[in-house]
Design a protein that fits this description.
Helix content is 41%, strand content 14%. The chain has 13 helices and 13 strands. The structure holds NADP nicotinamide-adenine-dinucleotide phosphate (NAP) and ligand G4F.
Length: 360
């Protein structure tokens, strides 16, 4: 069967379809002709804005499920009857994992065991993708080194510890039960629909608001941290590619460039013809108990085996995110409201916590 025809008969289940990567992957798979199912959690306010924003809400089938709840995962596999499962659901914010280490472990770590067990018991023939992360390298991420599939892990947050457990669980189900299970070790990847608490979007959103007179300053934490930031729509392609191989494996996905939070601010403010030193200050409450110093990925295996390589690099990424936020807030000033900006993130939200990381 030709590739396009095969894709048209394929069914995919995406956990975490309401998140950045879940929505972008759904868009990619729909474009290939897949029937796409996605899990969502029951919330008091529905959270489908990314799917709406991408114009695909009515094109996907939504299945209620929670990584905390095994029965809901079994049911999700049953009703979607997938060929491929992409596990993108997680408590994905490193800062929050220091405040809620046990909850983060339950969802981001043990949740993956629940999902793989649901697969093993109901449909072990599915191909499984696990959203692993460069945070696994943790304290091994130091200036002047690059991380590959062979670099030892040294996790340094409750989030990373949970992801390490999930990484190994994925390998155990691959090697022990012969399930086609792949780990994508993805470095940071961003887009205009990135959550507002992550530093890239926090900065680009603030730049747009400052430019338009809606905000006058920006408080950040560790300005020296360096990350390898790529463009999320390209990164979700690599997830799909990993599940199209003859054999399952683990792959680093990265740009091979690293930049500091300070540089991120410089470039983002410059895009709006502003100078960051006039607006940015450090709030010590935003520092994490431990922070990974420097991440820079070597994705040569992905290039060789998957034929994947990044196109959008740091400066272009920051510019496109600033542009998107400027457009969004200009329209807001003209009277258009956006549920994700105006309602979910009011200016005067008052979070009380010993750590401020939850609020970004
Ligand atoms: P995200 O925007 O925070 O999305 C996370 C998704 O997980 C949301 O759909 C969320 O649902 C869902 N979720 C949270 N708790 C859940 C639970 N208990 N049961 C079921 N679903 C739950 O994250 P992302 O940036 O798209 O990242 C996707 C995955 O890749 C995550 O596993 C993340 O840890 C991993 N990752 C991300 C990056 C990156 O740079 N983006 C890099 C490496 C790895 P709600 O919408 O209801 O909250
Ligand atoms: O944007 P961040 O919160 O992303 P972080 O911690 O690198 O995690 C993201 O990427 C991981 C892949 O490596 C994913 F696994 C994870 O799910 C998530 O998507 O922070 C980036 C850096 C950190 O060093 C942080 O300390 O920016 C620093 N930073 C400085 N000021 C800040 C801030 N981070 C946030 N969120 N908010 C600040 O005000």
């Amino acid at each position: 069967m030709r590739e396009e025809e095969r894709a048209k008969s394929m069914r995919a289940l995406i956990t975490g379809i309401t998140g950045q990567d879940g929505a972008l992957l759904a868009q990619l798979l729909l474009g290939k002709g897949y029937q796409v199912f996605g899990t969502y959690r029951r919330l008091s306010t529905p959270n489908f804005w990314r799917l709406q924003h991408l114009g695909i809400l009515s094109k996907v089938s939504l299945v209620p499920a929670d990584l905390i709840d095994l029965a809901s995962l079994v049911e999700a596999i049953r009703v979607s009857d997938p060929d491929e499962v992409y596990n993108l659901a997680a408590q994905s914010f490193v800062g929050a994992s220091f405040e809620q280490p046990i909850g983060s472990g339950e969802i981001t770590g043990l949740g993956v065991t629940r999902l793989l067990e649901a697969i093993r018991q109901t449909k072990p023939s599915v191909r499984f993708y696990q959203a692993s992360t460069s945070e696994l390298y943790g304290l091994n991420g130091v200036e002047g080194t690059m991380q590959s599939e062979d670099t030892p892990f040294q996790p340094s947050s409750p989030y990373a510890i949970a992801k390490l457990s999930a990484y190994w669980t994925t390998r155990v189900y691959r090697e022990g039960y012969d399930i086609f299970a792949a780990n994508g070790i993805l470095f940071n990847h961003e887009s205009p629909i990135r959550g507002l608490e992550f530093v890239t979007r926090k900065v680009t959103n603030a730049v747009a608001r400052i430019k338009l007179g809606l905000q006058d300053s920006l408080e950040l934490g560790n300005m020296d941290a360096k990350r390898d930031w790529g463009y999320a729509p390209e990164y979700v392609q690599s997830m799909w590619l990993m599940l199209q191989q003859d054999e399952p494996g683990d792959f680093v996905i990265a740009t091979g460039e690293t930049h500091s939070v300070e540089e991120l601010c410089e470039v983002a403010f410059r895009c709006a013809e502003l100078r960051q030193e006039n607006y940015v200050s450090v709030d010590k409450g935003l520092l994490r108990p431990i922070d990974v110093k420097c991440l820079c990925g070597d994705s040569s295996k992905a290039e060789r085996v998957l034929g994947w390589s990044p196109k959008v690099k740091f400066a272009e990424l920051v510019e496109l995110m600033v542009d998107a936020d400027l457009r969004r807030w200009k329209r807001w000033k003209e009277g258009e409201t956006f549920p994700w900006d105006a309602v979910n993130y009011p200016d005067d939200v008052n979070v009380v916590s010993t750590m401020k990381n939850r609020g970004g």
